[in-house]
Amino acid sequence: MPEIKVLPEDVVSKIAAGEVIERPASVLKELMENSLDAGASRIEIEIKKAGRGLIRVHDDGRGMDREDLRLSLGRHATSKLNVFDDIYSLATFGFRGEALYSIFAVSRLKMASCRAGQPSGYAIEGEGGRVTAELPAPPVKGTTIEAADLFFNTPARAKFMKSDAAERAQLIKTVEEAALANLGTGFRLVIDGSEILSLPALPGGMWENLKNRAAAVFGKSVYSGMARVEGKAAGLAVYGFVSRPDCLAATRANQYFFVNRRPVGSALLRQALYRGYGHMLTGRHPACALFVELDPSSFDANIHPQKRDVKFSSENEIFKTISNTVYEELLAKQTAGVQLAAPAGENKFTPPDVPAYREAAGAPAAAAEAPGLFDAPPAQLREAAQPVPSDWRAQDLQYIGQLAKSYLLFECGAGLLVVDQHAAQERILFEKYLEELEKREIKLQPLLVPLEAELSRSQMETVLRWRDWMKSAGFEIDQRGPTVALLRATPALFYFTQPAFAEFLGYLSEVLGDPGKAAEDIKRNIIATMACKKSIKAHDFVKPQEAQRLMEDLKRAKDGHHCPHGRPTLFHLSGADIARRFQRSGAL
Ligand code: ADP
Ligand code: MG
Predict the structure, then answer these.
(1) Ligand nearest to the CA of 112
(2) Which of 30, 65, 241, 580 is deepest in the core (most CB within 10 A)?
(3) pLDDT for the residue numbered 476
């Protein structure tokens, strides 16, 4: 008896399907791509139960006749070979004739299609890769494909799916990406009966259309903070919209990159974009719809259909072109006067010193980016901090005064204690809020005039899913229209301005939807940190009594030495230190 067994065909097809179809959004992406390839001018999408129940895509493209309908379900069945002159470039573009075959293997599928001018259309139905019925269909030009009960026969895979909210957000993002890259096609997305996106086909010129789509996808407020960029190098063009340096956001939620108009995730492109902002990027993130056009032979897209990453043959060239384009177009032309004022007589700014991508990437992860919000403070900062006398809490600290409207000075032992007033306030608020949360005793403050935040649809989707949880955390959030969230009440500890709330909510929607931050206490800590950061600190000028009270609160804090982001709240100059500076021996 041989030990080696050949796997049965239905197992093979499920394994193959696993490579192409990872989650509902991958089904949607493949179906939309087929519709676009078929020349659709309008694509209608209906989703039920986060895509697990139903994914239905209807297009008005060229359609299939009966024979093609049958053939389309076979493995490695494609009509696209004649479009490309060789099989290699066909595969490079992701045409492997596997998508429908794979979707069919793991769902209950219905397809109906009709070619223009034909008296009748045809429909095929089946499940798990087996055809169960073939019937005539109405002569409606185009194709409708319905994949229902996704992964009904592969329970192990079904278990790997993320929360409904995460799947839904990904589905919406998939349509948003397609809509940004295909301006001449109209898109409509309906989820569980409500219309999420309705984007008409655009007739105008390229820039006008891209502007319209970007405004619809990003929402007006994000879009209004963006600027057009455009640049070229040999065999390479870069264009799109990116945030102005004064309109950066707390998260990466609104970043869309495309290579030859296919959506990609690429560390190289992202780092190049960030590098273009140079020192203007203070731990914050630009929104972007950034398009790179290249000779197809100079990159390798989805040889593997699920890989959104791309490999470029000339990484350094691309990195430099993007960062210089962003820098020159955006920073030099539009904000130079304000932000980067050069000495008189010098009207040309030196572009940022762009290292080759490999160098930038060789440094610790994401070296080209500014530090994230929750990163530990840089090492040199930590080293510079002086040891604070261990008994500072027990001491009666005399308030001396305020420096630069930012620092509170206290006499401590024979030395000086310098307190960063904002960092200290953040720490105190943070601990108070977490304590109220833990005891479920959040003091609420209804807002007479609700604050508004414009969100993208996927962000809105996430926020709505978490509305009850947010309410238990003291934030009463409502919806007005598809992309506007309202804040009706906040924890009484916090005070938000309109733009601060918009940022807070945008950031939160990403954290809430992120399965990597699923644990309740992680989410709580993040929301508390962010709220403290965004909430206005009482005053810049602190009265002596207020300074004393702040100090008393800080003494009682669990970690009085650091703000919630890990930066120090205070440092100490000992009497001996001060004496040494005056070349005196001994303490004061
Ligand atoms: P590929 O797109 O790589 O060719 P697919 O499995 O996605 O492979 O699709 C197989 C074939 O089915 C396509 O090549 C195309 O001829 C046909 N097809 C699929 N969807 C549509 C559609 N919406 N309209 C017209 N033809 C389609
Ligand atoms: Mg396809």
Answers:
(1) 1
(2) 241
(3) 94
The DSSP 8-state label assigned to residue 335 in this structure reads I
From the alpha carbon of 99, which atom of ligand 1 is closest?
Answer: 6
The more confidently predicted of residues 522 and 562 is 562
Q: pLDDT by residue (tens digit) across 41-92?
A: 999 999 999 999 999 999 999 999 999 999 999 887 787 766 666 666 655 5
Pocket mutation for ligand 1, best pick of 55, 68, 70, 78 (most atoms within 8 Å of C-beta): 78
pLDDT of residue 178: 96
Triad 234, 235, 236: Cα angle to 5°: 90
Atom number in ligand 1 closest to CA 33: 2
Are 177 and 261 in contact by the 8 Å Cβ rule? The answer is no
- Ligand 1 pocket residues where CB is under 6 Å: 30, 34-35, 38, 59, 61-64, 72, 77-80, 95-101, 143
Give tens-digit pLDDT for 385-407: 457 888 888 888 999 999 988 89
Ligand at minimal distance from the CA of 101 is 1
Tally of residues, the chain:
588
Nearest to 321 by CA among 347, 291, 281, 297: 291
**Residue-range domains of the chain with CATH:** 9-199 (3.30.565.10), 206-367 (3.30.230.10), 398-572 (3.30.1370.100)
Q: Which residue bears the tokens 């609420």?
A: 444
Q: Within the chain, what is the greatest distance between any pair of CA atoms? A: 104
CA of 6 to the centre of ligand 2 (A): 28
Tell me whether strands 255-259 and 288-294 are parallel, antiparallel or unpaired: parallel
Backbone angles phi, psi at 79, to 5 degrees: -100, 5
Q: Which atom of ligand 1 is least distant from the CA of 97?
A: 8
pLDDT of residue 82: 66
Kindly report the three-state secondary structure assignment for every residue of 268-290: HHHHHHHHHHHHHCCCCECCEEE
In this prediction the pTM is: 0.64
pLDDT surpassing 90 at residue 299: no
| Dihedral Cα 315, 318, 323, 327, nearest 10 deg | 160
Beta bridge partners of 311: 300
CB of 491 within 8 A of CB of 433? yes
The least confident of 331-335, 470-474, 559-563 is 331-335
Give residue-wise pLDDT tens across range 333-364.
554 443 333 334 333 333 334 444 433 333 33
pLDDT(376) > 90: no
By C-alpha distance, which of 437, 444, 433 is closest to 557? 433
The answer for residues whose C-beta is within 8 angstroms of residue 53's C-beta and 6 or more apart is 47, 148, 149
Nearest CA to ligand 1 atom 1: 97
C-alpha distances (whole Å) from 275 to each of 3, 255, 282, 330, 493 are 56, 15, 12, 12, 37
Q: How confident is the model at residue 143 (pLDDT cuts 50, 70, 90)?
A: very high
Ligand 1, atom 14: nearest CA belongs to which residue?
A: 78
